[in-house]
Write a structure and sequence with these properties.
Two copies of one chain form a homodimer. In chain A, strand 10 and strand 11 form a beta hairpin. In chain A, helix 6 packs across helix 7 (194-205). The first copy, chain A, is 48% helix and 16% strand. Chain A contains eleven helices and eleven strands. The first copy, chain A, folds into two domains: 1-125 and 284-341, 3-Layer(aba) Sandwich (Isopropylmalate Dehydrogenase), CATH 3.40.718.10; 129-259, Isopropylmalate Dehydrogenase. An eleven-stranded mixed sheet of chain A has the order 3-2-1-4-11-10-5-6-9-7-8, sandwiched between helices. The interface between A and B is large, with 56 and 56 residues.
């Protein structure tokens, strides 16, 4: 396997470069064979690299970028007026062949636009998709896509998302013949709209895929499917609604615990002794959405990620680069499209 | 106020008529001034009514229906081949003027089709919508619609859902000038698709409405909006995904509690002492989705509802009938549509 080099946009995210460099320090130790190219404003990053003893570390290379894309920059504008942004410079290390994956916690719209413009989609791939892994009740992971790269999709695009998601489940989670499903408002064949029904017919026809039918939202975490496909509008709302519910429950628990010291004591006791079974569900571990369908690996970290969460996004980038996911997707898409001919 | 009479389809739901009659007994005592018309198979219902001492109760009237719509009957088929179903007979008590609201735990698709056919939409209303109340972090409720009556909607339909939802929030929750929002994959004006953007423009123009803009899924439970509008596909997936996450968390908690008797002891202790603050979040209390936009009140109870949950659906029916919700929606829709002229 060739040596990996991961480009990191150090300037994106709400918490500034400090959490990025803290995450980098962890990654440098975890992956001694991987190189990291940190992109951002030199003056701002040098003291942070010094702080973590990374300034002259053989695995770390600092690349200066003059501009920063702000969280409220419009995607198109960021593309036209900020060609020297840390995000764009980091993406260019991929097309230059210097790096194999890129991680950014910056403006999602700008990342999708800049990545699409800089990297292009793989041959045959209609649209890139934003994909995340979700924990499920069987102890494994389910891959959900699209999470918002495409407000609406035609059925062929949904079909391709199924193909790409299956490659991810197979190579990142080691699932043979991943079960692919379409998210719908019912399980019966007649449910939903023409787009999902046509996508279902297309997926069912394809002999190389293990399509299991429609699933409803209540099976998003049940593990019934390894890959759950929907358009970006539906996926975004589904994922964020779950985020909203989780926040609500946690707030309510906090109120309960704050109402008596004894409850807090009980809770800490329970927490200490059961953290192993809960640990895998921590949102931090699932930080790092993949923008798949492009010619290189691009990972979007949550804007408000902590250092631990950003580290998970770096891990995701290493895993996808290590598995050469874009190459695998390219071959699978080619194989599936040729089946049709 | 005229005397209320609530029609109850006793044959719908996975748990059979026994939970319906158990819920009825509770409702009869809670609402001594309300009459109840129980519709279903006489031979099956009589022993159950006897069991709960309701056979000769002055508030309870049994109406025989020969047919039952099964959970797997196709909606159109149920309409054509089962004109004597308990569901249809119960709906007809509304058009006959004998009852003011109807509750059913039966086949959702069949209920929507039979209700639409039997009752028709209110003048000016394009489409009925399925609506539910959700608890929120401010201690109040937010109304979410549509939950699946319409797989796709045009912008005028979404606009009308906003109008109808606001009437519900105003009269059922007592919120003056309810904050109306559209569920979208981002908060910026440019986000989403043409349908939501046009609906947003339409809502913003209307002076009689308090439209606050787009919200994302993570604000579904925050209380930022009193009314959250989306098409039935998105609403169905959002609500069911939350259901799926809640099930996952509860299962995970059960595993934790089952791993040691001490944890169970702690939990029961905590549960007893904090049940008040958690009680309002129990799903049972939110059972009963309203099919609004029709000329009469129709409430859909969850198919797997317990007696307690079915009782909540009856309460919802009584509240909407008491507030004459269809009449109020009719006037508001008229007023809003005339503003446009």
């Amino acid at each position: 396997m060739p040596e990996l080099n991961i480009a990191i946009d150090a300037m994106g995210g709400d918490n500034g470069p400090s959490i990025v460099i803290e995450a980098l320090e962890k990654a440098v130790h975890r992956y001694p064979d991987v190189k990291f190219t940190v992109v951002g404003h030199e003056q701002e990053l040098t003291p942070l690299l010094d702080k973590f003893n990374l300034s002259s570390h053989p695995s770390v290379n600092l690349v200066h970028a003059e501009q920063v894309i702000e969280m409220d920059d419009k995607p198109g504008q960021s593309l036209r007026s900020k060609p020297e942004s840390s995000m764009r410079v980091a993406l260019q290390t991929l097309t230059d062949g210097n790096c194999q994956a890129m991680v950014s916690g910056g403006n999602t719209g700008a990342l999708m636009t800049n990545a699409y413009f800089t990297l292009k989609t793989l041959p045959g791939v209609l649209r890139p998709a934003l994909m995340t892994a979700l924990p499920n009740q069987t102890g494994g992971k389910s891959y959900l896509l699209d999470l918002g790269a495409n407000a609406s999709c035609d059925s062929e695009t949904l079909f391709q998302f199924g193909v790409m998601g299956a490659v991810a489940a197979e190579y990142l989670s080691g699932v043979p013949a991943p079960k692919i499903s379409l998210l719908n408002m019912g399980e019966e064949d007649i449910k939903g709209n023409d787009v999902v029904r046509n996508a279902a017919a297309r997926l069912a026809q394809c002999e190389q895929l293990n399509y299991i039918g429609f699933i409803e939202g209540n099976h998003l975490f049940s593990g019934r499917a390894d890959v759950v496909v929907c358009d970006g509008f539906v996926g975004n709302v589904a994922l964020k609604s779950c985020e909203g519910l989780a926040t609500f429950i946690i707030d309510q628990m906090r109120d309960t615990l704050n109402s008596h010291w004894l409850y807090r004591f009980f809770f800490r006791f329970l927490q200490k002794r059961t953290h192993k079974s809960w640990d895998r569900l921590k949102p931090d571990h699932y930080n790092g959405a993949s923008l798949i369908g492009l010619r290189h690996v691009v990972i979007k970290s949550h804007g408000s990620a902590s250092a631990g969460a950003f580290y998970s996004a770096i891990q995701q980038a290493v895993a996808e680069a290590h598995e050469q996911l874009p190459e695998r997707i390219k071959h699978r898409v080619e194989a599936v499209l040729s089946e049709q001919l």
